Amino acid sequence: MAPKEATGVRAGNAGQDEDLVRLYLDGVGKYPLLTREDEVRLSRLIQEGRLAKDQLARTASVVLASGNCCRRPGRAMPPRSSS
User: Fold this and answer.
1) Of 10, 52, 51, nearest in space to 2 by CA
2) For the chain, give me the number of helices (H) and strands (E)?
3) How far, rounded to the nearest angstrom, does the alpha carbon of residue 73 sit from its chain's CA centroid?
4) Integer Cα distance of 35 and 39 in angstroms
Protein backbone atom coordinates (compact mmCIF):
# COMPACT_ATOMS: atom_id res chain seq x y z
CA MET A 1 0.00 0.00 0.00
CA ALA A 2 1.30 3.46 -0.90
CA PRO A 3 1.55 6.00 1.93
CA LYS A 4 -1.01 8.82 1.90
CA GLU A 5 0.20 12.35 1.34
CA ALA A 6 0.06 14.59 4.39
CA THR A 7 -1.74 17.38 2.54
CA GLY A 8 -4.56 15.17 1.30
CA VAL A 9 -4.06 16.53 -2.23
CA ARG A 10 -3.53 14.12 -5.07
CA ALA A 11 -0.44 14.82 -7.12
CA GLY A 12 -2.44 15.42 -10.32
CA ASN A 13 -4.48 18.27 -8.83
CA ALA A 14 -1.77 20.05 -6.83
CA GLY A 15 -1.28 22.86 -9.36
CA GLN A 16 -5.01 23.41 -9.80
CA ASP A 17 -5.57 23.49 -6.02
CA GLU A 18 -2.77 26.00 -5.58
CA ASP A 19 -4.39 28.20 -8.24
CA LEU A 20 -7.72 28.09 -6.39
CA VAL A 21 -6.05 28.96 -3.10
CA ARG A 22 -4.20 31.83 -4.78
CA LEU A 23 -7.46 33.16 -6.27
CA TYR A 24 -9.11 32.99 -2.86
CA LEU A 25 -6.25 34.74 -1.08
CA ASP A 26 -6.04 37.43 -3.77
CA GLY A 27 -9.76 38.09 -3.40
CA VAL A 28 -9.69 38.18 0.39
CA GLY A 29 -6.65 40.47 0.37
CA LYS A 30 -8.62 43.21 -1.39
CA TYR A 31 -10.60 43.98 1.77
CA PRO A 32 -9.18 45.40 5.01
CA LEU A 33 -9.49 43.47 8.24
CA LEU A 34 -12.06 44.64 10.79
CA THR A 35 -10.84 46.67 13.71
CA ARG A 36 -12.00 45.85 17.22
CA GLU A 37 -14.37 48.82 17.09
CA ASP A 38 -15.81 47.60 13.77
CA GLU A 39 -16.43 44.15 15.22
CA VAL A 40 -18.20 45.58 18.28
CA ARG A 41 -20.33 47.90 16.12
CA LEU A 42 -21.31 45.10 13.75
CA SER A 43 -22.12 42.69 16.58
CA ARG A 44 -24.42 45.31 18.14
CA LEU A 45 -26.18 45.85 14.82
CA ILE A 46 -26.62 42.10 14.40
CA GLN A 47 -28.02 41.76 17.93
CA GLU A 48 -30.42 44.69 17.36
CA GLY A 49 -31.58 43.05 14.15
CA ARG A 50 -32.22 39.75 15.93
CA LEU A 51 -34.17 41.49 18.67
CA ALA A 52 -36.23 43.41 16.11
CA LYS A 53 -36.92 40.20 14.16
CA ASP A 54 -38.05 38.41 17.32
CA GLN A 55 -40.30 41.32 18.30
CA LEU A 56 -41.80 41.46 14.82
CA ALA A 57 -42.41 37.70 14.86
CA ARG A 58 -44.18 37.93 18.25
CA THR A 59 -46.30 40.87 17.07
CA ALA A 60 -47.19 39.12 13.83
CA SER A 61 -48.15 35.97 15.72
CA VAL A 62 -50.49 37.91 18.00
CA VAL A 63 -52.04 39.78 15.08
CA LEU A 64 -52.50 36.61 13.07
CA ALA A 65 -53.91 34.71 16.02
CA SER A 66 -56.39 37.44 16.91
CA GLY A 67 -57.41 37.98 13.29
CA ASN A 68 -57.87 34.30 12.47
CA CYS A 69 -59.73 33.25 15.58
CA CYS A 70 -63.04 34.42 14.14
CA ARG A 71 -62.45 33.15 10.60
CA ARG A 72 -62.53 29.46 11.37
CA PRO A 73 -65.11 27.43 9.50
CA GLY A 74 -68.36 27.20 11.40
CA ARG A 75 -67.74 30.29 13.51
CA ALA A 76 -69.55 33.53 12.87
CA MET A 77 -67.69 36.80 12.57
CA PRO A 78 -68.52 39.20 15.39
CA PRO A 79 -70.40 42.30 14.29
CA ARG A 80 -68.28 45.42 13.69
CA SER A 81 -68.93 48.33 15.95
CA SER A 82 -70.04 51.45 14.11
CA SER A 83 -68.30 53.97 16.35
Assistant:
1) 10
2) 2, 0
3) 37
4) 6
Q: Residue 71: helix, strand or coil by DSSP?
A: coil
Cα–Cα distance between 3 and 19 in angstroms, integer? 25
The distance from CA 3 to its chain's CA centroid, rounded to whole angstroms, is: 42
Q: What predicted TM-score, i.e. pTM, was given to this entire model?
A: 0.44
- Letter for the amino acid at 53? K
- Using one digit for the tens of pLDDT, what is the confidence trace for 19-30? 999 999 999 999
Rg, Å, the chain Cα set: 29
pLDDT tens for residues 46-62?
999 999 999 999 888 88
Cβ-proximal residues to 11 (8 Å cutoff; 6+ apart), any chain: 5
Contact (Cβ atoms closer than 8 angstroms) between residue 27 and residue 19: no
